[in-house]
Amino acid sequence: MTPSIFIAMPGNEAAAGTLAKAYGATIGQLELRAFPDGESYLRFDTDLTRRTLAIVCSLDRPNDKILPLLFAAATARELGAAKVGLVAPYLAYMRQDRRFKPGEAVTSREVAQLLSNAFDWLVTVDPHLHRYGSLSEIYSIPTRVVHAASLMADWIKTNVANALIIGPDSESEQWVSTVAKDAGAPYTVLEKVRRGDREVEISIRNLGDVGERTPVLVDDIISTGRTMLETVRLLKARGDAAPVCVAVHGLFAADAYEMLIKAGARVVTCNTVRHTSNAIDVHGTLAKALGTLSVSTD
Ligand code: R5P
Q1: Are residues 112 and 166 in the same domain?
Q2: Predicted model pTM
Q3: Are residues 274 and 253 in the same domain?
Q4: Percent of the chain residues past pLDDT 90, beyond the cut
Q5: What is the pLDDT of residue 1?
Q6: Which of 36, 148, 194, 267 is most solvent-facing, going by the fewest CB within 10 Å?
Q7: Judgement on whether residues 205 and 245 belong to the same structural domain of the protein
Q8: Residue 225 covered by a domain
Q9: Calpha distance 182→265 (Å, rounded)
Q10: Domain harbouring 129, CATH code
Q11: Domain of residue 252, residue span
């Protein structure tokens, strides 16, 4: 399945450029701006008739992005596009995968429904699959998931001598174990209890002597940064070497990044969400994954 046009939603130009180049496709033009009252204005300045289109939009800070994205997909169809797919390097709302308290919205399902209704297929990088085994449990369109573990492992092998890979909680084990295997490094997983949005408790009782190793904390998402921050603090309090924090998606709510740097950590992320910490390029791997997605072109 090869799109012939890629459309970059604002901020996604680099990813769209790499993908378009990989497929010899063109970058379509979409004008998107806000009216003075905050409503969205969209206009395609590219002929979409009978074309297979991929819209590239990472869904960090998703609430402002999803409505224009849905407008873009619907408009592309009205203008005659044959297929409209979504490349979302970061897929939002995946952590709301259960009704933790009565009456709560399970927004992972609601977002999956909205996107499945709007698009013909979806390609993303390491969605937060914790209670869901795969995206197909909530997405009704073909999906392809790109894993960043081997790219993260390569970065660690090249940049960190004598690494000890540490996962802050049991959820992170799926990423940590693969990264450690690919990096040829030992790993351990800590225990975490989340008390609130910005309150986590980490127990390092599973962690033996770090010795001369450099602790490398690996997780899929850094949001408020509290998970990483608490772990960094505990390690530093023990006198271990300054840790490196490596994550797939750096969302960095409020001052999360600055707090981690201030705490003495080096912070590195994949470029699924544009940020100064991006050091691991996943765009080439995304391009390859797109080619393996089989979608009928009827
Ligand atoms: C857990 O659900 C995730 O794997 C991350 O550990 C979590 O999202 C990190 O969140 P925060 O940075 O807010 O502690």
Answers
A1: no
A2: 0.96
A3: yes
A4: 92
A5: 66
A6: 36
A7: yes
A8: yes
A9: 23
A10: 3.40.50.2020
A11: 149-280
- For residue 172, the ligand 1 atom closest to its alpha carbon is 4
Residue 295 inside a domain? The answer is no
pLDDT of residue 292: 86
Same domain, 125 and 153: no
Residue nearest to atom 1 of ligand 1 (CA): 171
Spatial separation of the C-alpha atoms in residues 87 and 59, rounded to whole Å: 10
Query: Probe ligand 1: pick from 93, 220, 231, max atoms within 8 Å of CB?
Result: 220
What pLDDT does residue 2 have?
85
Query: Model confidence over 145-165: pLDDT tens digits?
Result: 999 999 999 999 999 999 999
Where does ligand 1 bind, in terms of residues with CB under 6 Å? 95, 168-169, 171-172, 200, 219-227
Distances (CA, A) of 168 to 151, 245, 264: 20, 10, 17
So what's the pLDDT on residue 298?
A: 41
DSSP state of 261: H
Tell me the per-residue pLDDT of 2-58, one tens digit each, with 9 for 90 and over.
899 999 999 999 999 999 999 999 999 999 999 999 999 999 999 999 999 999 999
Ligand 1, closest atom to CA 251?
A: 12
Calpha distance 20→112 (Å, rounded): 26
* Statement to judge: residues 224 and 244 lie in one domain: yes
d(CA 73, CA 61): 19
What is the predicted pLDDT for the residue at 50? 97
| Same structural domain, 164 and 270 | yes
Q: Which residues are catalytic?
A: 192
Give the chain's domain count.
2
pLDDT at residue 295 greater than cutoff 70? no
141 and 233 fall within a common domain: no
